[in-house]
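Why this split exists: single-chain examples teach little about how molecules sit against one another. For that reason, every record in the complexes split bundles all components of an assembly together and asks for one structure covering all of them. Below is a record exactly as it appears in the raw files.
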Amino acid sequence: MVCKKEPIDREQVIAKYLSRSLDSEAVEEFEGHYLGCDECFEELRLSERMANDLKASNLAWNQTGGVSVLRFKANAELTHSAQDLDALRKEVLEQSDSRVIIDLSRVTRIDSAGLGQLMSCYSHLVKNRGALKMMNPAPEIKKLLDMTGLSTLIPTFHDEKEAVSSFTN
Amino acid sequence: MDLNEPSLDRLRLKLRYKVLYHVGHNCADVDDLVQESLTRFLRAEQRQQIRNTEEFGAFLNGVCRNVILEYRRRIKREPTIDPDIPIPDAGVRPDAEIFEMRDAIDNGLKELAERDRSILRSLYLEGREKEEICREWGMSDAQFRVVLFRAKERFRRVYGPELKRNSGSEH
C-alpha cells in the first residue's frame, strides 16, 4: 500500500503517475488506493499542482497594446506526450484576457495533439469574444500550419508588431 | 460504510480526477462517467456486494474502470462528431486571484535553486527514477529527500488552502 511506504517512495509513485510512466498494473493499484485514501489523494493533488507550475514556468505572458502575448522561455514541443502542451492549454484557458498571441518561435515540433490544442484555445477565445493569433513560427512549423489549414483559421504573422496591429485593423 | 454527503462529495472529486486522467480534458462526458460510477458503486453498497469495506477504493476503482471501458467502446461504435458540442471550459478565475497566485508561485519557484528546479522537473515531468537523479547530481538519498520535501512544503503553503476550497475543477 502506497501510504505505508517511505514518503519518498510514495512521492516517486505519485511522480510517475503524473508523468504517466507507471505501468498499467501500478496505475490500477495506485488509483484503487487513492480512491479510498484521503491523505494520498491530497498529496497527489499537491504534487500535480507543483508539476503544473514547473511546466508553466516555461511560459511567460506580457502585455503589448492591450493584447496578451504568450511566450515559451525555452525550446518547447507541442506534442501528445510533451509537458508544454498541457501547460499551454492551462495558461490560455485559465486566464481572462481574450485577445491572445502565441509566440511560436521556440516551438520545435507540433503533432496532431498540438494542432488540436491550438484549435481548442482558438475556440475558447472566440467563444469569449476574443481572438487567437500566432507569430514567428519556424519554417517547418509554418509549413505544417499551412498544410493543415490551421494558419487560415488562426492568422499567423512574422513579427509581433504586425500581429498586435492586426487586432485593431 | 459511512457514506454521508461530505464523503460522497469527496468520492466524486476523486472519481473526477481518475476519469479526467483517463479520458482527458476535452471529453464532454466526464461528469456523466463520474455519476455513473458513483451510482453503480452505491447500488453495490446497498446490495452489500462489497465484501471488504476496508478496501472499497479498489472496488470503486474497478467500477469506474468498467464505466470508462464501456464508454470507450460506445464511442468507438458510435463516434459523435457534433460541432455544437461545447468544449469543456476550464473556468476563468478572477484576475486578482490569478495574479496573487502567480506571484506566490513565481516567488516559490524563484526561491528554488536552479539545481532544485531541474531535480523536480526530472522527477515530476520526466518520470525519472530517484536513483538515476541522485547519480546525475551526485547527491545522497537524504539530500534528495531534503530538496523534494522542502519544495513540496513551499507549495503546500501556497496551495494548501486553495486545494481545500476547490472542489476539483482542475486536473
